[in-house]
Amino acid sequence: MSVIGIDFGNDSCFVATVKNGGVETLDNDYSLRATPSFVAFAGRKRIIGAAAKNQYGSNKENTVIGFKRLLGRKFDDPHVQHELTMIPTKIEERSDNGINICVHYLGQTHFFTPEQVTAMLLTKLKETSSQALQAQVSDCVIACPFYFTNAERQALLDAAKIAGLNVLRLLNETTAIALSYGFYKQALPSDNPRNVIFVDCGDSSLQVCACAFTKGKLKMLASSWDQVGGRDFNVVIADYFAKEFKQRYKIEIEHNSRQWLRLLSEVDKMKRQMSTNNTSLPLEIECFIGDIDVSSSMHRYQMEILCDSLLGRVEDTLNRLLIESKLPLKEIHSVEIVGGSTRIPAIKELIEKVFGLTVCTTLNQDEAVSRGGALQCAMMSPALRVRKFEITDIQNYAVEVSWSGEGSCIGSSVEIFPAFHEAPTSRLLTLSRKESFNLTVRYSQSIPYPDPTIGQWTIKEIKAKNHGEYNDIKVKVKINQHGLIVISRATLADKNDTERKSTSLQHTAIERPKLGMIEDSEKSRIPSRANTSTDRQTNKVMDDDNDKRSSKYVNLPMEFQIHGICQKELKDLRLFEERMSANDASETKRIDAKNALEEYVYEMRSKLLGGHLDQHIFPIERESICTELNDVENWLYEDGVDTDYDTYMDKLYLLKQRINPINARANDYERCPLAFDELERAISFARAVIADFKKGVDKYAHFTEAESINISEKIDKSQKWFDRNKARFVEAARTSDCPVNSSQIRYEADILTNYVNSAINRSKLNRNTPKITSATITTGPSEIGQRQLQQHNKHY
Question: What is the DSSP string of 529-580?
Fold first, then answer.
């Protein structure tokens, strides 16, 4: 079983695996490592990845981009409304305020959620990974931005389930980068940690984190971020040129999406060139609108002036990390940069200015995230053995828990996890209750999501004690391996256990619930197999007579409302995705058959009309076949445009039945001259051997006269066969079947050559065998033997 790490980016994706003792980034079906995050719908099939990007300009209305930024969000979210200005596809609001992406697919309008579109891309990555590894792929680690909230993380997990992937962990992108850096570092200190800053600036976001490394361990310290990336620089530069073109050429492209996308593409190329050139670079676009050609130029310093506000946001993010991490500059060992946009010289200069260190490029700037994900997946999979490396991640936002129910009062809440609390982990919250109550978990600080609520849980089947006393309810709040905050269980202490409790907790009035004691539960370590299930468990409570024999704690049933798709709908979406994948495979097979038929028609027609088949067919037959080829061609562009696979293959089979004999005939006439040359050379070689034998050449001294006669007879026989069949070949009409085929000629050449070689090679055996002469043959004992015999006779 293979394991993979997926870097799911807004612009492109990378997939890596652990293979042959190292980490390897996999190629896609275009032999590229980067798979564009594009999903297109064209006719009867979906087009995903590089192929979707290639047809983007001509099919932008049905090509979905930027869907990563829509995961888990509502339509009226201001963030979504901003993103819609950059997405050419039609987006509508669902009845539940969700997002519907409208595309034309299978001849009608279809609506897909961002989770479904993400699942389509993940399915493509899964398929290309399986092809590259020649093995089934299921287990994976997916990297996501560390600023993703519960809703966004759950949406990404749902998309992976729809794609049929088993996500062992959602790994923060910054943590994946840190793991990729630290795993192979052998010279890490044992005591004083090495503090490293990682700056990741990609297409749509900037993430900065501080990490402490010791031998075999990494600990994330703090992080900061901003949703500014390479695409924002592109928009600013493109807007500048749009205004210039409006003034110079009197053209407007603000509302012309096709030309705007074309301008963005050209600007992106220019921006990349600016990273390595400090000279003025030209921008030239032919036939930009109609027959109007546009041109301009820009210097790097002009770009930096235009993007001054963006660069200011970058600097603020870097400074914010220093504040959050509380690291003095002198304690920072180095600064590593990854992400395509860190290649912008102005961003590098800001990093060096803020941290006072020259940036390092130890890591692969494009593949570091996927490589770290692959390492984490290998560490968690039981199928592989990996060197132990401990990871302590962090929860980016502060989280609080509030409760309601009988006796609760205003302000009944507590911060269960402060910002940058280590994760995965869990904590226990103790509440006193005598009836069912509600718990609400929410973020207690500003987050990039309009709704701070994580989820609501109702703890049920709580009854007061015999004298109306309160029960102690222990609620376990957990940050799991995916970074999701969940209430994993609620337990009720039994009667005997309550009586044994110390009175130190009884500082509140008895008619009120306790405001909540928080205690650390076990620090969660990543299991070998991830389990994201939060389904409620209910252990039956035994009656009063058996109360003394009951367990110490009883799990209470819970009902909850959290972000994400319900299990039934997930199952339906998974089946729908499988049907679409099967349809894609069938449509690809059908199109390949159609293309094969069309290619065969063009190829055979060119060969029959002036090609190498022209002289091997009667004119009447050629005209008949060409007519049939023309009919098939016309059918392909008329009634046969959308025909099924079997029909295409049937027509191809019928054409081959007529043309294959002609092809075979032409091939025989083409190959026979070469075969005759081989036979002629074999005869000449055999004649030369006999001539050398007759001259007394030492090489052939072992030949006998009988062998010489046999070889000569073989030569004569082969020569007669050659003359007879060569004459038949020369005289044969090229429109009839060849009187002899090349395999027969080569067979005759091989027989003669093998017979001669066997006689020649016999001499090698004779040279290695000692020659027995009359001088070595004696009829009696040797001289030494005679002396030994005489000495023997003296003793008797």
Answer: S---------PPPP-GGGGGGS-SEEEPPEEEEESS--HHHHHHHHHHHHHH
